[in-house]
Amino acid sequence: MNLSELVYESGKLSKIAAFTNGGGICGLLFSFEGMAFYSTVSSDTDEIAIQEFVPSSHKETKYPNRLNACIGKKLIWAWTLENQQGYSNGLRLEFEDSLVFDFIAVASDLKIFDAQEI
Predict the structure, then answer these.
(1) Which residues span the domain enclosing 16?
(2) Distance of alpha carbon 109 from alpha carbon 43, whole angstroms
(3) Which of 4, 16, 32, 58 is spaced 20 to 30 A from 74 at the CA atom?
């Protein structure tokens, strides 16, 4: 699954679910009309990984309510973010109505940032 598929084939977001593996949030499941994907932190590299399934060791947990604003919105842009050391440790998603969020891998957790224009 690549970013083009996510943006052009996903449709509107219908559900978000967050997961943990004992620490903080380690992954988010984004369910759209046309597909679903799981954004998580690779345990081997601490980089962002996009996959089609939630590992059985990950357990559902709460996520920031601000993400609920994306429900019913289409994904219109997606970026991968690379740090100064060459690691792909971030994902930026922009939904309709200029809702922009960054998901950054920090150690084994996925940190969530509201990245609105000022």
Answers:
(1) 3-114
(2) 10
(3) 58
